[in-house]
Q: What sequence folds into this?
C-alpha cells in the first residue's frame, strides 16, 4: 500500500466519530496515511509540520493550505481546552465572539495593526519555502480559501466553489462535499 502524508490545517484533520466519512477516511481505503494536520494553524505552522517530518518516507505529500489572514501565535489561550484547536493560531472570525484580555488584544491588533497586503506577502513567502522544501517529492497542493494572487506558483487545486456549495461539519464539508473532494483528489494521487 502506498504511503500518503497530509500536512495542513483543519481541512485535512482526521476527526473521530463523524456522521459520514471524511475525504481522509475515504482515502484511507487506498493509502497508508500519516496525518500531521492541525485545526486552525497558520501557514507558518504548516511549514513547521513539513520540516518536522522525514518527507522521503512518503510516496505522496498532500498539503492543505490555509488562509493568509490566520496569524501565527506561540500560545493561544482561547482554545487550550479543546481537542482539535489546542494549537490554533488566530483569525478574526475566531475571536469576534470571544471575551477576555487575549481576545480583546487580538481584536485591537486586527483593527489597528493587521495589514492584508503584508499578510498576503508573508503567506506567499512561506508557500515558496514550502515549495522549495518539497520540490524533490510528489506533492499535491489544495485549499478551499479564495484569495486572488495567492498560490500562483503552486500547482494548486482550489475547492472554494465546492466549499460554498457543500459546507458541513466534517472537514468543513457535508457528505457530498467530502465524497467530491475524495473523487477529485484520487486521480492526482494515483498519477
A:
Amino acid at each position: 500500500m502506498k504511503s500518503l502524508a497530509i500536512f495542513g490545517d483543519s481541512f485535512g484533520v482526521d476527526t473521530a466519530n463523524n456522521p459520514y466519512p471524511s475525504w481522509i477516511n475515504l482515502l484511507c481505503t487506498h493509502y497508508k496515511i500519516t496525518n500531521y494536520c492541525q485545526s486552525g494553524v497558520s501557514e507558518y505552522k504548516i511549514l513547521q509540520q513539513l520540516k518536522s517530518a522525514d518527507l522521503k518516507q512518503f510516496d505522496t505529500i498532500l498539503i492543505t493550505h490555509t488562509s493568509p489572514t490566520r496569524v501565527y501565535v506561540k500560545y493561544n489561550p482561547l482554545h487550550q481546552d479543546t481537542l482539535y484547536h489546542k494549537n490554533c493560531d488566530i483569525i478574526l472570525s475566531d475571536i469576534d465572539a470571544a471575551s477576555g484580555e487575549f481576545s480583546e488584544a487580538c481584536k485591537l491588533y486586527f483593527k489597528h495593526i493587521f495589514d492584508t497586503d503584508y499578510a498576503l506577502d508573508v503567506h506567499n513567502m512561506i508557500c515558496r519555502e514550502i515549495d522549495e522544501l518539497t520540490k524533490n517529492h510528489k506533492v499535491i497542493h489544495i485549499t478551499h480559501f479564495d484569495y486572488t494572487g495567492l498560490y500562483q506558483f503552486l500547482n494548486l487545486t482550489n475547492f472554494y466553489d465546492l466549499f460554498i456549495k457543500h459546507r458541513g461539519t466534517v472537514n468543513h464539508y457535508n457528505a457530498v462535499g467530502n465524497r467530491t473532494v475524495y473523487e477529485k483528489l484520487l486521480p492526482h494521487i494515483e498519477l
Summary: The chain has seven helices and six strands. Helices lie at 23-27, 43-52, 92-95, 101-112, 116-133, 160-165, 175-190. The two ends are 15 Å apart (CA to CA). The chain has a mean pLDDT of 90.
